[in-house]
Structures are given as C-alpha cells and as structure tokens.
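G., the chain you wanted modeled:
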Amino acid sequence: MSAHCSGFPRSRWRPWQPAALTAGWGAGCLPSNTLLPLPAGSGDGQGQILQRFPEKDWEDNPFPQGIELFCQPSGWQLFTERNPPNFFVAVLTDINSERHYCACFTFWEAVESIQPQSHKQNSEEEEEEEEMDSSLPVQPVQLFAPKSLVLVSRLDHTEVFRNSLGLIYTIYVDGLSVSLENVIGNLLTCTIPITGGAQRTISLGAGDRQVIQTPINDSLPVSSCSVALLFRQLGITNVLYLFCAALTEHKILFLSSSYQRLTDACRALLALMFPLKYSFTYVPILPAQLLEVLSTPTPFIIGVSSIFQAETQELLDVVIADLDGGTVTIPECVHISLLPEPLLQQTREALSMVLDPELEVADVAFPPSTVSASSLKMQDKEIRAVFLRLFAQLLQGYRWCLHIIRIHPEPVIRFHKAAFLGQRGLVEDDFLTKVLEGMAFAGFVTERGAPYRPIDLFDELVAYEVKRMHADKGNKQKILRHIKELAEKLYKNENPYPAVTMHKVQKPTEGCHLRLHQKPFPRLDEGTVQWIIDQATAKLQTAPPAVKAEKKCMVPLGTPIAAILERSGNALANSARRLEVVRNCISYVFENKTLEAKKLMPAVMRAMKGRSARHCLTQELNLHVQQNRAVLDHEQFDFVVRMMNCCLQDCTAVDEHGIAAALLPLVTAFCRKLSPGITQFAYSCVQEHVVWTNIQFWEAMFYCDVQNHIRALYLESTEENHAGEEGQEGQRAEKAALEIASEQLRLWPTMSREKQQELIQKEESTVFSQAIHYANRMSYLLLPLDTSKSRVLRSSGLGDVESVSNSFVTNSIAGSVAESYDTESGFEDAETSDVASYVVRFINRFVDKVCTESGVTNEHLKGLHIMIPDIVQMHIETLDAVHRESKRLPTTQKPKLLRPSLLVGEECVMEGLRVYLMPDGREEATGQNNGGPPLLPAEGAVFLTTYRIIFKGTPTDSLVGEQVVIRSFPIASLTKEEKISIQDKIQEKDSSIQEGLQLRSCTFQLLRIAFDEEVASESAEVFRKHLNKLRYPQHVRGTFAFTVGQSPKQAMQPKAKEKNPSISSQQVTDMFQGLTVGVLSLGHLSHSTTTFSRNLVKNAKTIGRQYVTRKKYTPPTWEQRGSQQFPEDNEDEISVSEEMDRSTLTPSTTIKPSDKMTMSHLVERACCRDYQRLGLGTLSNSLTRSKSEPFRISTVNRMYAICRSYPGLLIVPQNIQDNTIQRISRCYRQNRFPVVCWRNARTKAVLLRSGGLHSKGVASLFKAPNAPTSAGPSQTDSTSLEQEKYLQAVINSMPHYADAGGRNTLSGFTSAYMGSSAGKWGSIRASGRASSYALNMDVGSRLAGKDLLSAQHNGAPAEASFLRQHRASLYIIGDKSQLKGVKPDPLQHWEAVPVEVFDVRQVKASFKKLLKACVPGVVATEPGLTYLCSLEESEWLTQIHKILQVSVLVVELLDTGSSVLVSLEDGWDITTQVVSLVQLLSDPYYRTMEGFRLLVEKEWLSFGHRFSCRSAQTVTNQSSGVIPIFLQFLDCVHQIHLQFPMEFEFSQYYLKFLSYHHVSNRFRTFLLDSDYERIELGLLYEEKGERKCQQAYKSIWDYIDRLNKKTPVFFNYMYAPEDGEVLRPYSNVSNLKVWDYYTAETLAEGPSYDWELAQGPAEPADEAEQQETGAPQSKRRIIWPCYDNRSRVEPDAISKLLEELHNLEMELGHMPERWKDTWDKVKASQRTEARQEGSRMASSSLLMSSSLSHQRRSLGMYLQQPGAGSTLNLSLDSDTSSTSTPSSGKQGGRRSTSTLYNQFQMSESENRSYEGSLYKKGAFMKPWKPRWFVLDKTKHQLRYYDNRSDTECKGVIDLAEVESITPGTPTMGAPKTVEEKAFFDLKTTKRVYNFCARDAPLAQQWIDRIQSCLSDA
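Predicted structure as tokens:
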C-alpha cells in the first residue's frame, strides 16, 4: 500500500474548510500530565491528550478542541477491575457547521503505583488519558485507568474506524511484529475514494485488507441499520412523535446506557428527516461536564448516558426518549403538532406493513408460511422509503411556489408559503405551517430551490411519483410494492456492489484484556510518523487532481398542485351554477342591468364564501380592464367595490388563496370620474382589510411580480434570437420561470464577461423598478381616503416587521430609519404622529428587506429612500381632492322617488322626504316565519297630502326590488306620532340611521320610518309640524272633506268665540226651513211655507248659540230659558195660525229661493222614513190624525232647545204633551229623555233609548226611600208623576196579551228558544273578568228565578233560569251604579235591570292595546305568542262579548212582548251600540244595504253620537284621544255577519269600508257631533245642484251608491234571508274572531278603501280564449301575503263571471248592463227553474245541505248535468230552499256539493254543452292520441284536454272557422279495434282534423252535436 501524506487535494470526501484538520483521518496527541484522580462515576474527571498525529493541524482542517471530554463522556475514572475494550463514535460540530466523527476505542491499563505517571502515548489520531487516585490507602491495590485511541474524521465510516483502531490495539496487545508508527502513518495517508459509488481497498501494512465504500449519491443519508433499530427500540407511535417534534423544532433528548446506540438513534432521526437537514444543536453523545447545555433555549437533538437520568428530570420543555426502556416522555407544557390527516394514518399503516407484516394475516385461518420481515438492513431502507413517500406527499408541488427573483450572478429563490398552504388546503394545519416556517425548510429551499443542480431520489419522487401515490391510495399491495422499490434504490445507494471483498483485519486474542502483566501502550516516535506523512504528501503533489464529475441538470417541476377541495367540505364547495351566478352578475353590472344585478347580489355574496367563486370574480373583472384602466359609472363602481370587499373579507392576512394578489392590479384599474380631472380608484374603498397591513403578503406579491418580469426579460431575448421559429414560440411562452432560470444557469459559464455584466444590470434594474412600483401600490392601499383621520395601524401589525418575517434584514442603509421607531411595539404613538410617517416607515422597511435580499445596489436603495416620502406626500394630495369630491356624492346611488297617485282634489302639502320604511313587528312583510320575500325594509319617500300620509318605495332586498311598496293612511286617523331612534342595519349600510318617526293610525296602520341621512333634521321637524296642523285643524271646516279641491293654505281660521254663543242667522234660516217644510210635506199640507218660515225664524238670534268646538253639550238651565216661551198646544198639532206670530221669535233674514227646493229632503232622511216604515207615528193636522195611534212624531225639539244632541223629530206616546216632555228631560243626562226608536212588528213591543237618569230621576221613577228631598215637594212630585205617566203611556201602547200559555211570562221564550239548539242566548253572567257586569241579584232573582244557574258553554244562561210568573211590561236597562238601592215595586209595571257597563275610558284603553297587539311597532321575539297575549290583555273581545250579550238579552225581551228602555251613560255611546245591534238582530230590513244605512243615519248620526269628539277630529278634541265606539259596533256586526253569512245583503268589505272612512274625513257624513251642529254648518241641506259638481261625493252614502252601480264589491252573494228571522249570535269570547280589518294590509297598492286608487290596470283577458288552436298560457300568479289584494288577484267565481260578461258586452258593442240587473235576472231564472224541477222531480231529489253553525235553516245547493248541458243551480231564495232538487240528466253522473263554496270549483267558468273522449290525429307525422273534448255552445268552441280531470286546455278549435264535418277513413296509426264508421273529419279554414270515436253511434252523436252548434250560429 502506498502511503499518502496529509495535504490531500479536493479529491477527498468533502470540500474542506480552510484550516481544517484532517483530510484522511488526521488526529494527534499532546504530552500528557496526570490529573488529580477523582472518585469513580462522579463524571468530573478529565483525561489528557498524550500524543497526537500529525502534530501540526492539517492546513485546511483544524484539530477539534475539547476532544478529551467526548472520548470519555462519563468522565475519567479508575476501576478496580479490567473491562473489555469498547468502541463508539461521537460527533462534533464545528463553527462552520461541519461535522467531525470521533471514533473512540477505549481499553484499560493497570496503574502500578500511586505516583502520577506520564508515559501516555497516542497513536495517530488517538489520545490516551490516564488518571490516578491520590487518595488511595497505603496498601497498594491494583487499579485500572482508561486509555483511548481516537480517530477524528470528517467522513463517517464507522466500520473502517472500528477495524483500524482495533488493529492498532491488536498489534499492541498481542505484541505483533508490526511497527505501530507504520500502521498509523499508512492510516493517515491512505487514499479515500471520491463519492459516486466508488470503492477502494486499503491496507495499513499489517496484513490487513479493508474496503471503503462510498454511497452513489452523497445527498442521501447513510443509515445502515440505525433506523430499523430505532423503531425496534421505541415503536411506531413514539418515533412518529420524535419525528414531528424534530421537524417542529422541539428539544429532543435520547437516554441510553450505550453510547453507540445514542449515536445510532440520533443518526436514524436525521435520516428520517431527509430531505430536510437538521440545523440546530446536534450532539449524539454529550459529556457529563457539558450537561448544562440541556438548558439552552434553542432546539436540539442530544444523547446522554442514562447514568445522568436524574439530572434530566428537571427539564420542563424537553422531549425525552429512553432507548433502553422504549418510552418517549412529552412534558405537559409541550404540544407537538402531528402530521395532518390522512397522512398520519397512512404513514402509520405503511410502517406497520413494513415492521409487522404478519399483522395482515394474523386473523387468517390458513396463514401463508412465507410471511417474514425483511432483513434488518432492508427493513431500515423500507422505513426510510415510507418517510420519503411522506415528504413527497407533504411537499408535492412545492417547486410551483418558488419565486426566482435573481438568476445572475447567483440564483436568489424565495418560497411562497401562503400560496403553498392555500393550494394544499392546509392553511389551518399547525404541523405543515411550523415546518415551512422552520430553519430546516429554509435550508431546504436554499439547497434544493436552485433550478439547475444535481438531482437525487427525492427530486424524482416529488416530480414524477406523486400521481402514482394518489392513485395507489387505499391499495395496500400497491403501496407496499412502491415502498419496496424505493427501499431497493436506497439500499443500492449505500451498497452499490453487493459482492464486495470481505474485510480482513486481525483481531486480538480472546480475553487478552484480562492479562495480568500487560505492558502499557508504548509511546510512539513522532518523527517516523511525520516522515511517512511527508513522503505521501510529496507523491500526491505530482499526481493529477481527481475531480468529481457533477451531473447537473434542470430540476423537474413536477405536476402543479391539484385543486384540493376546500376542507370545509361540500357546504361551500362551489358548483358550476354558483360560478355562473357570479359571471352573470358581473355581466349585468357592466351591461347596466342594475335591477338584475341587485337580484343576484345576495347569491353572489353567499357564493364568495367559496374559493373558486372568488377566483372566478377576479378573472371576470380582469376581462373588463383595458390597458390597465376601466372607467365605470357610479352604480357600477359601487357594485364592483361591494364585490371586491366581499371577496376580501374572508381573506386571511397571508392571502393563502391569492385573492388579494389577484385583486391588487384590479383595485388600481377600476375607477370612476368624480369631477373633471378627479378620478377615484377602487383601492380607496377596499382598504379596510388586514391583508394590506401584512408585510409577508407584500413580499410574496413583490417576489411574484419580479419573477414575472425576470421571466419576461429572458423570454424577450429568446424570442429575438428565434424570431423565425414560430412553432416554438407558443411552447416558449408556456415555460415556467424556473425552467428559464435553469437554462440561463446552464449557459452562464459560456457567456462573455460583458454579457454577464449586462444581464446582472438588467436584472437589478428590473427589481429596482418593481420596488418603486410597489412603493406606490403600498401607499395606495395604506393611506386612508380621509388622511386627516389617523388610522391606528399598530393593531394590525403594521410596522412590526421583525415579528412577521423570517428573512434576514440588513440595516445598512435603513439604519437611520430603523432607529427612529420601536421595532418591538410597532410604530410610535398614533396621536403624536400622522399616518403619512407610518406609511413611509412601513414602506421603507419593506424596501430595505426585499432590495437587500434581491441584490439591489446601495445607490439605488438610497434613491428609493429619498423617493418614498415624496410618493406618499403626492398620493395624500391626490386623495384630499378625491375625498372632497366623494363627499359630495350620495353615499349610494339611491332609487328614484316614486310619486304616489292622488285622489281628485287631494294635493301634496309636502314633497317626498327620502326615508326607509322599517319592519314594525308584523311578520308577513319581513318574510320571516311565513316565508315569502322580505318586502321591508323598503327605501322610498314619505309624502304628506291634504288627505293622507303616504309611503311609496321599493324593498331594499334586491330579490323583490321591482315590487312597489305603498303604505298609507288618512291623516285624520293618526293616533300617535313619536320620534324614535332606529338602530336597525339596513342592507349593507354600515351606519345605523338614528332619526326616525313612528306614526300610528286608528285604521290599524303604522309607519315606522327612518329618515335618510340626506334629509335634514329641520325638514323632519317641518314635516311633523305640518302633520300636526293637518291632523288637528282649528275647526271642522279645516278637514279634508271641506278643503278638498282648495289649496291647502286656505283652511278656515278658527272663529273667535262669541260671548253669547248663537247660530248664525243664515244657518238658523236653513235649519228651520228644513225642519218646518219637511214636517209640512210629510203632513201633506199645502200652505205657504214662506210666511210660516219667516215667522218661525224670527227668534233665531235669541236662541242660545252653541260653541262649535265645545267638548260637551250642556244646554242652558231651565231657569235661564225663562224668556223662551214654547207654545203649549194640547192637540200637539202643527197649526199655521197666528200663535207663531205671537211668539218672541224675531225675523232676521229671509229664505233664499234655492233653499226651498231642498226642504223636503231633511225629514225624508233616516228618522222619518223609518218611523213611517215602522208605523210609529205620522205627522198630520188635528183633523186627519188618528187618535187611536199609540205614538206620534213630536216637533218639541224642532229648534233643538230641549236636547241639542237629539234629532228635530222624535217619537213619543200619543197622549204625552210637549210641555211634559220638557220637564221629563230634566231627569236625564244631557236632557236625552226616553224616545221610541223601533217597534217589534209582531209583539208591538217598543225599543226606547235615553241618557242615563240623574239621581232625582231615579228617585222619582222608582220612589227610592233615600231620595233627596231638598227640592220643593211640588217640583219633585210633579216630575215624578210625569215620568210615571210617560212610561205608563209607553206600556199602554202595547196590546195586552192574556193567553194562558204563558206568553206573558219569560218562560215562554225560554222554552221556545232556549230549549232548542236553534235559538241561543247570550249569557248575562259569566265568571271572573269576562263578565264585569251582571244582573243585580236583587232584581235578577225576580226577573230570572231564585238564582242564575251556571251559564252554558255557548254563552246562554241555563234553561231553567229565566222563570217568572209575571213579566214586567217594560224593562229599563240601566247602569248598575245609578240604580243602586232601587227596590222593585210590585205595583209598578216596569222594572230596572242594572248592568255594569264599561265606560269610554275603558274602550279607549282597550283600543290602544288592540292597536299595539295588531300593529306592534317593535319586532317581538315570539310574534305569535306575543300577539295572542297582547290581544287578551286588550280585553277588546271581552267588550264585544258584553255588547253582544246585552243586545241579545234585549232582543229576547222584545221578542217576548216586553218593551225595553236602554238608558246607559249619556245615551250616545253604549246605548247607541246596543239599540243599533238590537234592531239589526231583530229586523231583517236593517241587514240590507239600504236598511243599514238608515240605521246608521238614524241611531248614530241623528241621535247624536259624538263622532268629532270620539275621533278627535279637531284641535279642541285633541286631548280626549280616539275612542272608537262606532268601530266597536261595526266589529259586533262583523261577528254576527260571520255567524250568519246568508242574512246580510252587504259584504264584509262594506263594514271595513265604513270602518276606514268614518275616521278618514274624506266624506262629510261622519263629521260633527249632532244634527244640530250639521245644520249649523249647513251640512244637512246641501243643494242638489252642488252634488253634481266635482266634489260630488261629500256623503259616503252617495259614494257607496255610485260605486255599487259599477261593481258588486259591497254585495254579499250568499245573501238569502229568511223572512222576519231574529238572529241570536253566540257571544262567548271563544266564538268571536279577530277581524281581519285589524291585521290585513295590501302593500302593493295601500288600503283598498279609496276605490279609485286601488284600481290598478285591469288584468289582461284570458288569452287562451282568444287563441284559435294553441294551448293557453298558464295564468298562475304567486300571491304574497300582505302584498297582493287577494280579492282582486283571485276574484270569486260570480264576480269573475260578471266581469267576463261585461267584457263580452263591450266586445260585442252592447250597452253594458248593470251588474245588479244581471244578478236579479239570474236569481229570477233560477227561482223559476227550481220550481219547475221541484214539481217534476220531487221524488228523485238529491239535496246536499250545508248547515252553518247554529243557523236555523239550510242552504240548498246542487249541480246538475243533463246530456244537453250542465246548469249551475243555486237556491238563492228562501222559497226554494227546501224544495229545490236537481234534475237527473240523460247521460253522465250527477255532481253535488256538500259545502257552500264547492260550487265554484269547476275547472273553468264555462258551459260544457257536450263532452267525451275522442281519438285525435296529431299534425303531420304525429300519432293518434286520446283526448277529452268539450263542446262549448256559449263560446262556440271545441276544446280538448289531456284527460277528463285536466284543467289546462291543450287546444281550441273555433267553430266559426269550421267549413264542413264529414265521415272519415282510418289513416296510418289509427286505433285498430275501432270500426270504420267511427271516424269523422272536421275541416276548418286552416286544416283538417281527423277524429275517431269509441263506436259508430257515438261518432254520429258528435257529428250531430257539432252540426247543431254550427246551425245555431
């Protein structure tokens, strides 16, 4: 063997650093001194170097210091017995991160004496250490000291080390005749093969032979068996924990009693980490003296002998692996991130397959005999193959995330971590994130990022095998096969030549270490060794240098990362449909289809949660950018900005999906022009996102752009060179930047120096220009639009650059900048510094970092630092102008204000204020639980007109954006107006609108409006003032009914109050003229009215005037009226004698001739017409009046002197004189004395009404013992007598019944009505709160037996309760509080029935609560429950129940012959309700439209219900508030209507119409409080000529009449009354329903009670009926609750028929007939037909009766279908209801209905003259098909359907076009079983139709039918 010396050239194993120690195996030893001996095992002893070779360091490799510690890691110790030699390899790492392998061979020598000795020797690179214990006892004891031979090498060849050191020991111990100096010299100078799989045999000159084998690729670690051993020691899970801990930079400590095992374990862990390299502290064997190293804060992998285990217990953050015990201990405070699933599970399974192959077949019944694990070495490689696969899967596609930012002179590469994690869908994964941020990965990028370098197994695997791995997933056999393939490659790398020559090295004799007299190791001759080294060095210098040939190539990129589904799963996975929505929305925006875009916007916002939708948005927006600019209009700009913001809001700060990166060029491209020269870019509106303040994002973006520009730079130059090769250009354009870089690096050595310099300069300029560009971009996105507001950026991490970037930042240039701010806490305090300096610093930091990393020259960098403040300042100036202009723009493009339709004469008082109509607690409009679209909130305007408050606008929800929302109510119905603060967030608005109004109306409407920010608060105040002024006019003449048609400002000023209130002369004239002439005309007198009227009016001025605006009518006392002499006229006749002249009336004015004509109109009004109808009295002179009549019409109140609130004409008993009436009236409140208002035609009992009695009235009437006696006896007695006389006269008027059947007792009606289920009683007494009034038990015990038994469930008292032997002739229903203490007098014929009633205050409170229940104003948490609770609390239905109950009681009393006087409160509220209801229930006339009008006019208007006061019509009544007594009455009528739907001529709509308009002030009918006031204002006698003018409909009745002529909207089609039927409704609360008037609304058109406004465009006529042959269009429409008016969209069948009839008449040019005439004709014909059918077919009747609950009759209904046609038969009149029967048809079955409504459920409103099934031949080349044909004579059509039950017509043949009908012949495809005569053809002007019937007779029948139709036409 030729020995070589130490100065080895670079042909050795590794390149050496300067001053490195040994190339071959260099080592040395120093002269030794003996150290102080120490006790064994203390670990404190330390050996010394005895000799070292070579003595001087190798020139390129210094000798490692402190090697003596590592040779004896447990410390130098003496032993009492000789141990066998041992061997291990320690690893040292020098300052340059070079590893040195120290092979230590230790043996023991006897210590002869206690004296220290210094004959230590060291061979080659060995050190020998010897220590002696000085404290030994005097007796000499044999002690043994360790001595080590150490070989230090930079190459790791453990076996060669072991053999070489063992050979030296063998020569020494066996005393072989070989020179140790020669062996050591040869060892130091042997030639070592270059890497690349070479092997060399060496010999040290002692007859030995060794083979040094190098791996084929030295980048792959050599592990031998260490990995397999590690898994054997610790197991799969523990090793995986260690592996993850090492990769995520935790501290790892191995413990073992074997040093070699520690080394192997550490080596194995490093081998598993390949291709990552461990770059932290790595000490496989840590000496005892250095144990404090374990407290270091940095990560490490360290091995420690287990004898020091106790010292490791205190380590809190170290993962400890005990190799001997097989455990891994992880402290509590350490969290190890594990591999992401499913990789972790897959790795575990693969490892299990490798380590325990028998596991797979453990459960197999007949296991294969050949299953066995691989050899240890092979198993080692298989395990490594598993981890190689793991890294390939973890890092797949990593090369696509490398940014090459410089190619020359050296490549500079950065890795885009965020993009990699985003594309892998592992952003949230802790493990991969930590690995990518770790030092090992940074080294990986540096080492492996280069595009042009040698490649190894990992590069191939990650580039080419990833797809295979994905494909093999789940297939264990394929996975195992792949693992074995990889393992083979790894094994081959370590052992390229399996048949190597075996080592031949002599080993010492067994047990030689136990020899007693072994000489110490000799000291060697340094000179000899040095001479051998020098010889070898001289030889080597002459030899040619051996160069390792590096095979460099382009590193393959592999496949790009496949788009992995988002980890959230399918919920947000974007379907193609969603992407389509995004694309459509963007195209709508750019096509200016705003409404369409708005509709799609919410869907786009939802889609933006998905990554692909966001990418799609950026791509689509990119298409609309031309030359880096896209100018938009304001609305487009808003849309684009909204989408961008939505896109960015889910982006994290690192922008892992590249969304912000894709948007960055777009935000500087999209802009809008604010004014000439001022443009606003989108970036000013998308700044509020955390991504812009993240420096890592900017770095990645910068590097990405630089890479693109560098790529472009080289692409251009390539294209110039290959201009002709067009075919290659496309391919070249596809080249990735790394591929171009690789090509450039390959060419670099071949380029000239100048060319190289030029490329370097170009690249540097590219980076520099990008840095300037990015300084601008960053200023765009970091400077807020309003730079005056300092935005605190510290919270988002701006400026804290050090904390968010791993890259190394130089401070060469930016040193001065960096010093100026605190790098730990971010920027300086926000208050003391402005945004500009923040941004400048942030950009400076960024520029410093990226420019340093990418090699920008210092000059350029300095220039940048000077430029940046100027860029920022310039941008701030631009922004100021933009900000100024943008403030002038409306924040959002607001919709155009829609103007509302107004009534004739209605005028706008205030133009629309822009507002939002907010939800108010009613669910329907917000589309919550009920579904449907959210119509509210809506954006529009509120308008104030002379009549209404109107909101008109569109919903903010774009899905219903094309709908119009209207909500309005009359100003006069406003009950409450309050300011509110609205916090609701409207759509995407950020700021909640503060100011708002809530306006509540007694028409059950609420406007909850929020003023837009453009509405000044002054405007809102003006609006409120105007509203208040209009709501409460000073005088009734200021209401809309009077001011209609005038300009709003002409409202009457209130008149000053006069001292003596009086009626103006003209008014009095009108009043008296009306009265007298009306009276005379009734009496058929023919005297001159002029003289009489003049006389009558003489006293006008002296009659006391009444205050117009007084709240209460208090007539002057009788004492004050002394001067008013009323003519006492015993005969009580109106005579035209001189008596009137003698009165004190003085003439004031004459009557206008025009007034005379209207006089007769007055008394022909309600009262008199009704009195005449009832036969209650006539007006005539004394000669003609019949004295036998019990009642007369009195004119005692003709001048309203007795009672201002009564009508002028009253019904009183015949024999009561007028002067008596004057005195009686004093006993009653408001002088409202009892008058007759109705008489029962059968029993002749009368119904009287009056005000409540005063106390003296009670006393005089009932002779109460405690009556006051302060008044003069004569006065009291006379009044008392007159009262009695009056009531007796009423009683005498009734015929006396004396039949013994008990008609004179209450038991009569009890048995008659209560015993049967037909008639029901309302209960007077119930329990608890439900009945707060009851019969006074004292009176009740006489009236109703001893006690009232418990009430029945339906509200009627128990049957046995009303028993009385003698009933009273007159019952007085009075207030319980008034009739206190009244004792019944058996001699009197009348009896008091005290009832406890609620007063108006209770009604008012209840109504308020009802309003809040139905129209809450605040959104409730549980709307349904809240509504029901509020409804119950309001007690509204309880009050309805009470009113109905009392009314039913009175009805029963009247029906049994007792008269009733209703005398409650002042006689104008509850009294009116009760008497009106009693008449309605008792008399069918009042259930007609005419009768109901008359009832309201008589009882409510003439008898002085205080409409003005109760509806708070003027400012005088403002304080009293709204008390809806009339509404309550209408609600009662509604309840009765629901229970008896066939008894009323008018519909529910009629009641709603009255409810709405009695408070709307549109008509004058319900204005003022009495006839007296109406006369005073001239309302009662308006001229007939005036009625024909524009504002003709001053009276609601005129309006209803006119409307009723046009449309049957007020008519009830179910009206079929029974003659004289008395209704007895159930009154229990459970039987009552909440009126839908309170809850329903129509947002499409507003309230439907102003008919002119509600009538929109007519629905188009059914096109199907106009088509000739095509199938009709479907007319289905979606009806939204609370939006559409259902009755208009879907009218009832009869209305529809009438409408069709009307349309046909119009088409045919006939004069349209009024609907009522048509209806009456239909009724008449129905009656006739029914009679005929009844007489003919009485036996075979089929009558289905619908029995509505507790109706004492049934409604007959039937449908008949004779052969000729079908007729709809409705028994509409009572005379046919029991006898009507259907006719049985000749053919076909009969149809019948069981309910009232099924009659309308026919498929069409059509006449089916004949129908049946026929085969029809289709058009050309189409088959025969069976169809259901209908012959319709009415429409002259032949229609066909798919089948009999089909409702949709498939085609129509118009018979007008038929030319002929002939027998036909079968054609191809015709039904085969049918005879030939069954075919016939129908020829029209357009085509020939072929038909086929079932048989010949049926075909003939069809031909005849069609022929007859044709001939009829």
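The longest helix spans residues 858-888.

Shout if anything looks off.
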